[in-house]
Structures are given as structure tokens and as C-alpha cells.
Backbone:
């Protein structure tokens, strides 16, 4: 099939495939976690070619990857994981040894207002990738890996006690988590039915640099800086377990290389915070950094109507990953939050380009299309 029919667009780069021992497809690499994963893996594994396949939705931003865009083992291709022709073409062209699948619609609030795009990308897109991998690898699954990156939200909502383990029954409660749960089930079904070599991880809430400012931490940092209200949903007592995104990226790399086929690993920070305590910590740190009088930022806190179906508490038991693969978070939350706030304050241009919508023009300037 002619590539023009597939609407391929890419950065012009001379990729010599024989230079690489392995080729890995990363989907959603222009998003928050995907860009950190690429930054980490491209630097660590120079004998591996990483092909970043991303549709560049509102959440995908190539400015997240400027520091690696010229690396010889990194290549970007724009496209939709729901397009079977394009996805099959990719597998055919690059002969991937593995896939790390992160592309998704990822924001719970958007899933409440527009569930269909979550069903399409998170479910249909995942099956499209599974079919392409199954087809491309049909002659020999040996050494191949289909790694699906998922969320702890598939397990539902906890009361005051207990943790999600890998054995916890699925009980998703938002369109986002239901679509991710569905994709997890399909990935497992392809393993059990066809023998596709899969791995899955379910991670808690990530925070760090390059996160789209619709999620709690970057949104609130930006609002505090701009003296805008901080909309706390409900009474602010919902609990999340927060993990520094770089630690998530390192966990994914470790599981990809050392995790067992067919297994699931929970990834978490052993770091639970009620939203309101976290928001007060952010306000305190921001007051210091912006040299504002103590208590200034907290005055921006505004209680608003609760999110529909708001899950009360998520908490991960990550002991399997710790015991089997010797992984644990590298920094404390206070350190991580401090670094994160510093990054957003130092990268005002990145934030302004997002809030003005200008980041979406970056692709047109940098990349060729055919
Ligand atoms: P994100 O929204 O920041 O990025 C998603 C990326 O996927 C974007 O670059 C977007 O352009 C791309 N994408 C969306 N639809 C696509 C499509 N149809 N085809 C190709 N690309 C498409 O998300 P994130 O926070 O980086 O999350 C990445 C993955 O990790 C998701 O699967 C998410 O469910 C999972 N996860 C996220 C968190 C978290 O706290 N952010 C926690 C656990 C798991
Ligand atoms: P979010 O970052 O959207 O992640 P998730 O819903 O996947 O956990 O939200 C984190 C928590 O913060 C969640 O309990 C909802 C709450 N929240 C607010 O109180 N106000 C906000 O403006 C946002 C975006 C989230």
C-alpha cells in the first residue's frame, strides 16, 4: 500500500535499521509519561531504536521531547493507533521486537463529558495494536513483548483501609477507568487465547514536569502563579497515591526488560495524600518560592461541586514489584514536588504555549508530511 494513503507524517531522518539490535514501538510518547519514558530509555539503551507513534491530540506535545528529538535512536511518526492500515504498515516497516503502549485518553473529567473518544482510543486503539502485533509476530512470538501501561483506577475506589494488589478484582467507576479496564482485559485475552507475550502495569497518580495543566498538580501550580482560584472538588478529602513520573518511567523500563511474560505489576509511591493536604503543601511551597506572605496562596482555595462518581481513595501495594524486581521510588514526595514546582516556574514559556494553544503549531514547523 502506498504510504501516501496512510497519511504518514514524520521527521525526515536517516535511520539505518541495521545499526540497532532491537526496535521498540512506543505509543503516546509525546504525552506526559511517554515523553519521560522516551527520555529515559533513549538515553539508556543506545543499541535500541525507539519509534514514537503519537497522534498529537491536545495532550501530545513535541516540545516535551526537544532534548532527544535529534538522537540517532529516536524517531517520531504521527498517527492514530485506531488506524489498522497505518499500524500494520508500521509493524511491517520497522519489524518491532516490542511495544510499550501508553497512548490513551487519560483525563477522568474529559471522560465524563465525552466517553466515546475514550472507548475509541483506549479500547479500539488497543485492540488495533494487539491485532497488528499478533499478525506481525505470528511466525514466532519468542523474544517479543507487548507491554500495556495502565492505571490503578481499574480497581475502583477504596475505603479508609486496604490497598490494591495485583489480585484485587476490577471495579472501574468512571468512563476513563472502565475503558482502561477493558483494554487490560483485552491484552490478557490475547495472551490467554493466542499466546501473545504480554506484560501489564497499573500505576498510581503520576506527577512531574511536562504534565498537561488539566491535571491537579500542574493546574494548581499555574493557577497559584497567576492568582487564579484553586477549584477543590467536593470536600477535598479524596485520597491519591502520588509517584514521581521519572520513577514510573524507570519501573516501566525494568518491567519491560526483567518482568515475567503474562504478569501484572502494580506501581505506586507508598505516598497517600488527601487532596486538601496536598494542596496546602503546594500553597506553602509556592508562597516560599514566589516570596509571598505565608498563607497567600491558600486564600485561592475554592470548594466547587464534586466530580460525578468521584473515587474516594486509591492506594497501591507495590510489594510484588519491589520483591521481584527490586524497584522502589527514588525520591520523597516533598523533594519531588519541590523539583516539580521549580520546573514549572522555570518553564513558563512551555506552560504559556499550552494555555495559548501555540504548542500545536510546533509540529507543523518541525515536521514533514506526505
Ligand atoms: P497523556 O494524556 O499525557 O498522553 C497521552 C498521549 O497519547 C498523548 O501524547 C496523545 O497525543 C497520545 N494519543 C492519544 N490518543 C491517541 C491515538 N488515538 N493515537 C495515537 N496517540 C494518541 O497521558 P499520560 O498521563 O502520559 O498517560 C500515559 C498512559 O499512562 C495512559 O495509558 C494512562 O492511562 C496511563 N497512566 C497514567 C497515569 C497518570 O497519572 N497520568 C497513571 C497511571 C497510568
Ligand atoms: P486528577 O489529576 O484529575 O487525577 P485522577 O482523577 O486521575 O486521580 O485529579 C486528582 C485528584 O484531584 C482527584 O481526586 C480530583 C481532584 N481534583 C480537584 O479537586 N480539582 C481539580 O481541578 C482537578 C483537576 C482534580
Residues:
Amino acid at each position: 500500500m502506498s504510504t501516501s494513503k496512510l497519511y504518514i507524517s514524520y521527521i525526515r531522518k536517516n535511520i539505518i535499521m541495521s545499526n540497532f539490535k532491537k526496535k521498540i514501538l512506543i505509543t503516546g510518547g509525546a504525552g506526559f509519561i511517554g515523553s519521560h519514558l522516551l527520555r529515559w530509555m533513549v538515553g539508556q539503551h543506545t543499541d535500541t531504536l525507539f519509534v514514537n507513534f503519537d497522534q498529537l491530540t491536545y495532550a501530545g506535545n513535541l516540545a516535551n521531547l526537544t532534548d532527544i528529538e535529534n538522537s540517532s535512536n529516536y524517531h517520531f511518526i504521527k498517527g492514530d493507533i485506531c488506524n489498522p492500515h497505518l499500524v500494520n504498515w508500521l509493524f511491517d516497516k520497522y519489524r518491532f521486537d516490542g511495544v510499550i503502549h501508553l497512548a490513551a485518553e487519560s483525563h477522568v473529567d474529559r471522560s465524563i463529558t465525552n466517553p466515546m473518544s475514550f472507548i475509541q482510543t483506549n479500547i479500539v486503539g488497543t485492540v488495533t495494536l494487539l491485532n497488528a502485533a499478533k499478525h506481525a509476530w505470528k511466525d514466532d512470538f519468542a523474544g517479543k513483548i507487548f507491554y500495556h501501561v495502565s492505571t490503578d483506577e481499574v480497581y475502583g475506589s477504596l475505603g479508609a483501609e486496604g490497598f490494591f494488589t495485583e489480585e484485587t478484582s476490577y471495579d472501574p467507576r468512571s468512563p476513563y477507568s472502565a475503558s482502561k479496564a477493558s483494554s487490560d482485559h483485552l491484552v490478557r485475552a490475547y495472551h490467554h487465547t493466542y499466546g501473545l507475550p504480554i506484560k501489564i502495569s497499573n500505576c498510581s497518580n503520576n506527577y512531574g514536569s511536562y504534565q498537561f495543566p488539566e491535571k491537579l498538580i500542574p493546574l494548581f501550580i499555574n493557577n497559584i502563579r497567576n492568582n487564579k482560584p484553586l477549584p477543590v472538588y467536593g470536600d477535598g478529602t479524596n485520597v491519591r497515591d502520588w509517584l514521581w513520573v521519572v520513577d514510573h518511567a524507570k519501573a516501566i523500563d525494568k518491567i519491560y526488560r526483567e518482568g515475567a511474560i503474562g504478569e501484572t505489576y502494580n506501581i505506586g509511591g507508598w505516598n497517600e495524600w488527601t487532596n486538601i493536604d496536598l494542596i496546602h503543601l503546594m500553597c506553602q511551597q509556592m508562597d516560599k518560592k514566589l516570596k509571598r506572605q505565608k498563607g497567600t496562596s491558600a486564600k485561592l482555595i475554592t470548594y466547587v461541586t464534586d466530580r460525578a462518581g468521584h473515587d474516594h481513595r486509591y492506594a497501591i501495594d507495590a510489594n510484588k514489584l519491589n520483591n521481584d524486581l527490586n524497584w522502589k521510588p527514588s525520591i520523597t514526595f516533598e523533594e519531588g514536588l519541590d523539583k516539580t514546582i521549580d520546573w514549572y516556574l522555570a518553564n513558563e514559556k512551555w506552560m504559556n504555549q499550552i494555555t495559548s494553544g501555540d504548542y500545536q503549531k510546533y509540529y507543523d514547523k518541525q515536521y514533514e508530511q506526505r
Remarks:
- The two ends are 14 Å apart (CA to CA).
- Residues 1-6 have pLDDT under 50 and may be disordered.
